[in-house]
Write a structure and sequence with these properties.
Layout lengths: L1 H19 L5 E3 L8 E3 L10 E5 L7 E8 L11 H20 L9 E6 L3 H5 L4 E8 L15
Antiparallel strand pairs: 1-3, 2-3, 2-4, 4-6, 5-6
Length: about 150
């Protein structure tokens, strides 16, 4: 019985550590949530698997403004560039404006990026789109860009 208690204590310590250090851990890009700050991958690869989370008060290059599922039916073909442009413009841009309190169309320093499903992910039912704010000049941000400072 004592061995089970020790194992449970170890598992609890690991879980607590992961929770407390979440902002500093690398994790799956698909786990990002609105309000998360992270380092945008600089790799030239078209596929992003993992991102490095950062506290918003530490230097970071991206902040998630929206996580949304594409509304296409399960049997729909993978969207082309113009369909992605329409979806991003209809969903991510208004979310950017609302989240930051800025107007994306006239804001000179902030831009936006997004992660979309891969072809293979789409075929498997992945419809998650992650929209994030980033600086146009690629300089790091040291605080949240959420309107109201939080």
């Amino acid at each position: 019985m004592k061995g089970i208690g020790i194992r449970l204590a170890i598992i609890a310590a690991i879980a607590l550590g992961a929770f407390l250090l979440r902002d500093r851990l690398s994790s799956n890009a698909g786990d990002l949530q609105a309000g998360d700050c992270f380092d945008v991958p600089t790799s030239s690869s078209e596929t992003v698997d993992d991102v490095q989370h950062q506290p918003c008060s530490d230097p970071h290059s991206g902040e998630v403004v929206l996580v949304v599922d594409h509304t296409a039916p399960d049997d729909a073909p993978y969207p082309g560039d113009s369909e992605w442009d329409t979806f991003i413009g209809s969903n991510c841009v208004p979310a950017f404006n609302s989240y930051t309190g800025l107007d994306f169309d006239t804001e000179p320093t902030m831009g936006m990026g997004f992660f979309t499903p891969t072809d293979e992910g789409w075929e498997g039912g992945d419809r998650k789109v992650i929209c994030y704010a980033t600086r146009v000049d690629k300089a790091p941000m040291n605080q949240s860009i959420k309107a109201g400072g939080g």
